[in-house]
Amino acid sequence: MKRINEIFYSLQGEGRNTGRAAIFIRFAGCNLRCPFCDTEFSEYNEMNDTDIIAAISAYPSRFVVLTGGEPTLQADNAFIALLHANGYEVAMETNGTHPVPAGVDWITVSPKESFAGKAGTTVVRRCNELKCIFDGHTTIANDYGIEADYYFLQPCDTGCPERNSLITQACIEYILRNPKWRLSLQTHKLTGFK
């Protein structure tokens, strides 16, 4: 049984796959406690793999994003293989503190150890995209020692429009000085679409 916070259909709002229709499977539970987290962990449904496949089959997209919480705490090799056997392309967004199951098609590592006071806990060293939350204070220069195909900085959403504007401007200035990075905005928040 897996603890599922929610399953929903939307557009991917962040990173390289922004704008792509996707089925999101949001797992409940995380090993970090970040101050800006937008996931409610206390509410979830226990679902077996068959029930999850049945739930996602209602949507036309064949692109599934495993997110959380922290999906590596529950998604395993067998679950990824089951998704593939049912014709799904599988993406995962992880904080990188646990190994990613075999066969995930697109891996986004979004390290948050500096926000959660857990320095040195990232174990994933290779991914498709590294997406770092930029708050204007956290040092990004070492890339957490992670090699990626794409490097994204995402301005931290503090809930305060004035502060968010300052962070976004500082993020853009950082990227202009460090052009290997690209800007990732949370377009689902900008458009008001989940």
From TrEMBL:
<dbReference type="Pfam" id="PF04055">
    <property type="entry name" value="Radical_SAM"/>
</dbReference>
<comment type="function">
    <text>Catalyzes the complex heterocyclic radical-mediated conversion of 6-carboxy-5,6,7,8-tetrahydropterin (CPH4) to 7-carboxy-7-deazaguanine (CDG), a step common to the biosynthetic pathways of all 7-deazapurine-containing compounds.</text>
</comment>
<comment type="subunit">
    <text>Homodimer.</text>
</comment>
<feature type="binding site">
    <location>
        <position position="69"/>
    </location>
    <ligand>
        <name>S-adenosyl-L-methionine</name>
    </ligand>
</feature>
<feature type="domain" description="Radical SAM core">
    <location>
        <begin position="17"/>
        <end position="194"/>
    </location>
</feature>
<feature type="binding site">
    <location>
        <begin position="110"/>
        <end position="112"/>
    </location>
    <ligand>
        <name>S-adenosyl-L-methionine</name>
    </ligand>
</feature>
<keyword id="KW-0004">4Fe-4S</keyword>
<feature type="binding site">
    <location>
        <position position="39"/>
    </location>
    <ligand>
        <name>Mg(2+)</name>
    </ligand>
</feature>
<feature type="binding site">
    <location>
        <position position="30"/>
    </location>
    <ligand>
        <name>[4Fe-4S] cluster</name>
    </ligand>
</feature>
<feature type="binding site">
    <location>
        <position position="26"/>
    </location>
    <ligand>
        <name>substrate</name>
    </ligand>
</feature>
<keyword id="KW-0408">Iron</keyword>
<protein>
    <recommendedName>
        <fullName>7-carboxy-7-deazaguanine synthase</fullName>
        <ecNumber>4.3.99.3</ecNumber>
    </recommendedName>
</protein>
<dbReference type="InterPro" id="IPR024924">
    <property type="entry name" value="7-CO-7-deazaguanine_synth-like"/>
</dbReference>
<dbReference type="InterPro" id="IPR058240">
    <property type="entry name" value="rSAM_sf"/>
</dbReference>
<feature type="binding site">
    <location>
        <begin position="11"/>
        <end position="13"/>
    </location>
    <ligand>
        <name>substrate</name>
    </ligand>
</feature>
<dbReference type="InterPro" id="IPR013785">
    <property type="entry name" value="Aldolase_TIM"/>
</dbReference>
<keyword id="KW-0671">Queuosine biosynthesis</keyword>
<comment type="pathway">
    <text>Purine metabolism; 7-cyano-7-deazaguanine biosynthesis.</text>
</comment>
<feature type="binding site">
    <location>
        <begin position="154"/>
        <end position="157"/>
    </location>
    <ligand>
        <name>S-adenosyl-L-methionine</name>
    </ligand>
</feature>
<feature type="binding site">
    <location>
        <position position="34"/>
    </location>
    <ligand>
        <name>[4Fe-4S] cluster</name>
    </ligand>
</feature>
<keyword id="KW-0479">Metal-binding</keyword>
<comment type="similarity">
    <text>Belongs to the radical SAM superfamily. 7-carboxy-7-deazaguanine synthase family.</text>
</comment>
<keyword id="KW-0460">Magnesium</keyword>
<dbReference type="InterPro" id="IPR007197">
    <property type="entry name" value="rSAM"/>
</dbReference>
<feature type="binding site">
    <location>
        <position position="37"/>
    </location>
    <ligand>
        <name>[4Fe-4S] cluster</name>
    </ligand>
</feature>
<feature type="binding site">
    <location>
        <position position="67"/>
    </location>
    <ligand>
        <name>substrate</name>
    </ligand>
</feature>
<keyword id="KW-0411">Iron-sulfur</keyword>
<keyword id="KW-0949">S-adenosyl-L-methionine</keyword>
<feature type="binding site">
    <location>
        <begin position="36"/>
        <end position="38"/>
    </location>
    <ligand>
        <name>S-adenosyl-L-methionine</name>
    </ligand>
</feature>
<keyword id="KW-0456">Lyase</keyword>
